[in-house]
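Entry 12.
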Amino acid sequence: MSEFQLKEGQGYIYVGEYFHKFGGVVPAEKKIGKTDNLLNIPQIDDYAFSLDFTAADIYLVDNVEMIYTAITVLLSQDNIKEDWFADSDNDLKDRIANFMKALGYSEIADVDGDGIPDHLDDVIG
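Predicted 3D structure (C-alpha cells):
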C-alpha cells in the first residue's frame, strides 16, 4: 500500500459552506460530506456566479461511515436536505470541530500553501 492510499475504512469528513465573492449575504447553511478523495470535494469554478463554495474544515478519520452517520444523526434537527444543514447560529463548524476533537481528530490543512495537506508534508515533501 502506498502512503497516498487511505487504509480501509478511512476517509475524509468535511464541512463546506458558500461564500460571496463580492462580500454579499450568503445562505446560513453548511454541507457536511464524506469522501475518500480530496479531489471529490465539490467546487464551484464558474466565475459567472457570485457565490462560491469552500470546504476548509476537513478531517481525516478512521471509520468514515460511522463518524459521518453519528454526525448526521446528532444534527438531524438541523437537516435541510440530504447533506445540507441549517446553521442559523453560525456555530455548526465549531460544533463539528468539538465533536471531532472529542474523538481525537483534528483538522487537516494546507497552512503552508504548497498544495499538499500538512498531515502529508513529511510523506510527500
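Annotation: Residues 5 and 36 are 9 Å apart (CA to CA). DSSP finds three helices and six strands in the chain.
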